[in-house]
Design goal:
It is a single chain. This protein folds into two domains: about 15-170 and about 225-315, Bira Bifunctional Protein, Domain 2 (BirA Bifunctional Protein, domain 2), CATH 3.30.930.10; about 330-405, Anticodon-binding domain (Rossmann fold, 3-Layer(aba) Sandwich), CATH 3.40.50.800. The protein has 14 helices and 16 strands. It has helices at about 15-30, 45-50, 60-65, 80-90, 135-150, 170-180, 190-200, 210-215, 225-245, 290, 305-315, 335-350, 360-370, 380-385, and strands at about 35, 45, 65-70, 75, 100-110, 120-130, 160-165, 245-250, 260-270, 280-285, 300-305, 330, 355, 375-380, 390-395, 400-405. The strands form three sheets. Strands 1-5-6-11-10-9-7-8 form an eight-stranded mixed sheet. Helix 5 (about 135-150) packs parallel to helix 9 (about 225-245). Bound molecules: zinc ion (2 copies). The site of one zinc ion has 8 residues, from helix 9.
């Protein structure tokens, strides 16, 4: 037998309605907030992620699915959704059209992760990207979309927020961090030793105890923000207060991707043990488009892991209603031609209908109807065929009625 590759998951027929619910919510939300869908390829040139996500990130340094294609090009399965969108925006000069450009995507992402709980090598993300706005109100718009998405599933995660500063103020902070960690780096984990050289900011969210302990006294970014970044953060927070979005400032929040500038955020539930995982995350990446060779264009966006959301809902005992049960099962004792006539007629009336295609007994047909959760069963025998009256059973109440097909109201 051939097994599924490690870190991947089948979405089985019994669970697919949950995914459809996620897609429905995402698409309705998109209409509500005027976001247009963008679909980019599953794989891109490796260079895009090296330049976009950043060489110093864990994703690029150890998690990418990279391979040579048959023409010896280096190809990478997308590890996240943002870089591909940025490439498409630049390549198609989308920012030459009306700004802001508000988009969403639903995409698989591939990362070579340790398959511990909640970490898959192929997972899916719902993401939003808003191009062309650098205002506090665009920050709030992005966060509102995310919170609205979650509220559709009956949850309200906390937003952890931080500012990573800008080109002007971040370098001084990085210097201060280097200076601080210099005398401690010998005691820290191997990853942090590497991060010290490649991306010292990442040390701040190391989960290793000794590193966490050392980080407690590290300088905080908020002390280094320039006046502009500080004012911008204050404005965003004031607007969030007014719009009722709950948040917490978290000076250690850095996110693992190099493209972030200014605002970064994570969606977490502090009550539930979710390992080290955020439910979703995002922020601002005002330099990404420029770094990928496009014209400078501010962007804010976020990604929400769909598997993680579904796992989280299960942890909280929140069930998603299965709206995909068949409306009517026709349990037939008449010949196939007459059965098909009735089934076709019912389907033309807009019902979802199923019936026996295995020539089974009436009893087995009822059993099957029960198993698949049919809402109604129509028994179709000689009497019904001759009288034109349908025998209808409501499977939830157990009540039976007779009616003509024209009078059917379910
Ligand atoms: Zn700044
Ligand atoms: Zn560490």
């Amino acid at each position: 037998m051939i097994n599924i590759p490690k870190g991947t998951k089948d979405i089985l027929p019994k669970d697919s309605y949950k995914w459809h619910k996620v897609y429905d919510v995402a698409r309705k939300l998109a209409r509500k907030y005027n976001l247009k869908e963008i679909m980019t390829p599953t794989f891109e040139h490796t260079e895009l992620f090296i330049r976009g996500v950043g060489e110093g990130s864990d994703i690029v340094s150890k998690e990418m699915y990279t391979f040579k294609d048959r023409s010896d090009r280096s190809i990478t399965l997308k590890p996240e959704g943002t870089a591909g969108v940025a490439r498409a925006v630049i390549e198609n000069s989308l920012y030459a059209d009306a700004l802001p450009l508000k988009m969403y995507y639903i995409t698989p992402c591939f990362r070579y992760e340790r398959p511990q709980a909640g970490r898959l090598r192929e997972h899916h993300q719902f993401g939003v990207e808003i191009y062309g706005a650098n205002t506090a109100v665009s920050d709030v718009e992005a966060l509102s979309i995310a919170m609205d998405f979650y509220s559709n599933f009956g949850v309200t995660p906390t937003v952890l927020l931080n500012s990573l500063g800008c080109k002007n103020c971040r370098p001084a902070y990085i210097d201060a961090l280097r200076e601080y960690y210099k005398s401690h780096i010998g005691e820290m984990c191997e990853d942090c030793k590497r991060r010290y050289e490649t991306n010292v900011l990442r040390i701040l969210d190391c989960k290793v105890d000794i590193c966490k302990e050392i980080t407690k006294n590290a300088p905080v970014i908020t002390d280094y923000l320039c006046d502009e970044c500080k004012a911008k953060l204050d404005e965003t927070l004031a607007l969030l207060d007014k719009s009722g979005v709950k948040y917490k400032l978290s000076s250690r929040l850095v996110r693992g991707i190099d493209y972030y500038t200014n605002l970064v955020f994570e969606f977490v539930d502090e009550d539930v043990t979710l390992g080290q995982n955020a439910l979703g995350a995002g922020g601002r990446y005002n330099n990404l488009v420029g770094e990928l060779g496009g014209k400078d264009c501010p962007v804010i966006g976020f990604g929400i892991g769909i598997e993680r959301l579904l796992g989280y809902l299960a942890q909280k005992n929140i069930t998603i209603e299965d709206n995909e049960k068949v409306d009517i099962y026709v349990a037939s004792m008449v010949d196939a031609a007459n059965t098909l006539d009735l089934v076709r007629n019912l389907r033309e009336r807009g019902y979802s209908v199923d019936y026996d295609i295995l020539s089974r007994s009436l009893k087995s047909q009822f059993k099957y109807a029960d198993k698949i959760g049919a809402k109604y069963v129509i028994t179709y025998g000689e009497d019904e065929l001759n009288s034109g009256l349908l025998s209808l059973k409501d499977m939830s109440s157990g009540k039976s009625t007779k009616c003509k097909i024209e009078e059917l109201k379910i």
